[in-house]
Amino acid sequence: MRKWRHMMLGLLGLALLLALACGGAAAPTVPPKVTDTTSPPTVTEPPPAVDGPPAQVAACVVCHTPDGRPGVGPTWQGIYGSEETLTDGTTVTVDDAYIRESILEPNTKIVEGFQPNLMPPTFRDTLSDSDIAVIIDYIKSLK
To answer: What is the pTM of this model?
Structure first.
């Protein structure tokens, strides 16, 4: 149980740092004070499968909700295969190509009702093709 707590805290910390980056704020320069000096237990076998989004999605769901709630970016629930109206009045079908383009060139096509320049353009440098494929598969699964 303790190892999962450490892993979840690490993921939450990553999500927080990415959320700060998405909002244009600088990450804190002073590390937080660590009060628990015990080391996590040694893992001798792989952890069991965990329900929920893959690790590549952890930062994305800070702005894109998986459950239909409003967010900084469009919700991912039920979006795959839908027609979305863009800020220029044109429409686009949300498919693999559109999602890939939106990750790599986030300001090319902005969904109506959302602002440009909020999603960092740096995912081109940090996500591999397989990472993007995992994100697309996760979006497809959100009916």
So the answer is: 0.63
